[in-house]
């Protein structure tokens, strides 16, 4: 699902008269209690536009949890839930592949959310490499240059992109707490 739920929550708060930047939301989330509640970011109720904060509260009540209140708790609930869902997806992928994935690569505009990047490292217990922000544009440009014969191979294009952008690195922190909370997240998924 990505950051859609956070964006849609911000739109709702704006409709309610709160002018919040993403930085404001992140600051509030850092100050909210950890692991109060979780949602399944891929649940159908979060797939369409509308009042996400209300839907999040309803989902939490329906699943026997305390409903998050206010910007900080709701934003933290979303971010922690996304990070936990990334962990779940990575573990499913590892099972299919039959091997461990040690590094998570995040690309696109979402990497500007440093809290989300750190939560991903924390939840997955893996190194996170974030960048580039404009990954789609870079891929398009590289494809065009390959088609024009300016770049000979996909590997050469990857090396050019890698040399052109400095990624950000995130290491897991407090994995034991995140690992314990993961069991509660799995219950929300029915696992």
What does it look like?
This protein has 191 residues and is mostly helical. Helix content is 58%, strand content 6%. The protein has eight helices and three strands. It has a three-stranded mixed beta sheet, with helices on one face. Helix 5 links the parallel strand 1 (103-106) and strand 2. The longest helix has 28 residues, at 70-97. It is globular.
In short:
The chain is mostly helical. 58% of the residues lie in helices and 6% in strands.
**Low-confidence parts lasting 5 or more residues at pLDDT below 50?**
none
Please identify the oligomeric state.
single chain
What fraction strand?
5-15%
Mean pLDDT: 95
Class from secondary-structure proportions: mainly alpha
Rg (C-alpha, Å): 18 Å
* Tally of strands: 3
The best one-word shape is globular
* Share of residues in helices: 55-70%
Per DSSP, the total helix count is 8
Strand order of the largest sheet: 1-2-3
Largest sheet composition? 3 strands, mixed
Question: How far apart are the first and last residues' alpha carbons, in Å?
Answer: 19 Å
Q: What order do the SSEs take from the amino end to the carboxyl end, as H and E? A: HHHHEHEHHEH
